[in-house]
Amino acid sequence: MSNRPSESELASQKSEKISRVGINRITSEDAFQSAMEVSRNFPFSESSMFDASSVFADRVPKTYDTAGLKFLVEFLSETIAMFNITVFRPRDRDEPQYLLLYTILSKLALLSLGPGSLVILPAGTDDPFADESAHLDADLFEEASSDEGEQRWEDEWAEEYRKSAPYGRACHVSFCACDGILQVVRSLLSSVHPPEMRASRNVDLETAMEKGYKVVMLVEPVKHIIFGYDIWQPMATAIELAILNGKKDPVTVLLTDGKEWYFASVQLVGEISKQGLPRPTRNEFRACGYRFRLFACKSFLCDLMYSFIKRESPKATVFAYLHDVLYPGVDISQVAAQAERGSDALKTLADEWVKACKVDLDRSQKLKDMEREMMASEQEAKDMEEEEQALKRQLQQQQGQ
């Protein structure tokens, strides 16, 4: 009998750790296929995924409202310009691209400050020893300097993971295995954030999803894209998150170095063993015992930091594509109205945040005013006392004469 979780079990396993394969990145086709048990019809090459003739590619030409595109470019222009002049961008670092994508996504999140709010979750490295079931002997670290010790560490870690892997399988990848991943999640609740989420922002993705959030986009910024190396980790992560999202909410991967942009959407169809699933389509594949659709695969060549344009620039199209992913079904012509509503909502939130600061400042000023008044009163009393003493001395002198 399969020990894979059913969709109903996924919903009930609130305290279950999101599964992982450990601290090693998936950086090859073979590792991806082995770890995720992916069917052979998955498009393992860049061309089979993104060429115009591919069944996985976004082959429907999109036309956008020109006024909407202009407003969107203007809306993001200050963010891009500010990043361009204030952030050093060493060529061997991923962090500048991470900051660039964060600034763009946070600006676009302004368009949804209301019901269905977008929230950015910056992922960090998952600590494989944080789970109580995965503790290893400390002496392994002392022996890791030798080849034999290092191999023993890897073997024992793998064995511990196999014992503790959720769902009894080790084919899933941690959504936190990449230091630089950004995840955009959307609240499906009726308020900006549910009360327990408003009370504390110190939550992880698992907690956020338990509270009614769905992953919309998984963004992996890298310094220089090597497609056959960089695509597998975010794609594996997207597969796992698509399972947790359920059938209605796809996860879109964005792999970019700020010059090349690769978009691909993954959506859960259902568990292979379940009856009553729709007939497979040409853009389906299998992984981890589930069926998925891979669609809307689109790539762009677009250097956001290069302002001199010799021919038609895809910058506006890249921004529009980001908008389409984050706000499916919302026409680009509505961006101006979204921005106005978002700005009003942000002003309200900012006023709430600064209110406590102003109260503290007012209280501090009152204390300072009271201190000055007390010092002035003390000085006045001292002056009066000195004046009284001077009068007494003067009187004594007059009496002595």
Automatic annotation (TrEMBL):
Which domain of life does this protein belong to? Answer: Eukaryota
Q: Where is the composition biased (Basic and acidic residues)?
A: 373-382
According to the record, the residues making up region (Disordered) are 373-401
Q: Where is the composition biased (Low complexity)?
A: 392-401
Q: What is this protein called?
A: Uncharacterized protein
Q: Which organism is it from?
A: Volvox carteri f. nagariensis
